[in-house]
Design brief:
By secondary structure, the protein is an alpha+beta fold. The relative contact order is 0.16.
Length: 122
Amino acid sequence: MAFSERLQLIGAPASPYTRKMLGLLRYRHIPYDVIWGMPEVVLEQMGIAKPKMTFLPTFLFEDGGEQLVARCDSTPIIRELESRYEGRSVLPGDPALAFIDYLLEDFADEWATKYMFHYRWY
């Protein structure tokens, strides 16, 4: 299987986490391709092993060999992208600010989406 120079992710237009990561990729000028669909179905069609927990978005990373590996948790993926791609960092250099950044991102990922969904469907 030939790999692309572009990062691949599987997402859904209504997913706030997909939107978050697309915004990050655009801001950092990281070339990417989106496969719109359900990760379980797309990964099965591509013959790629599903992660233990599959949710949106699911990124496909090269494992250093001839395989693609699926990963889904946005916070560790942001840190992985920071190590793989230079320029336009989204993580503060100051350790105290980096901790606050991590805390706010985790809060937003876990709780702010609950407010969003409440107001979307209430």
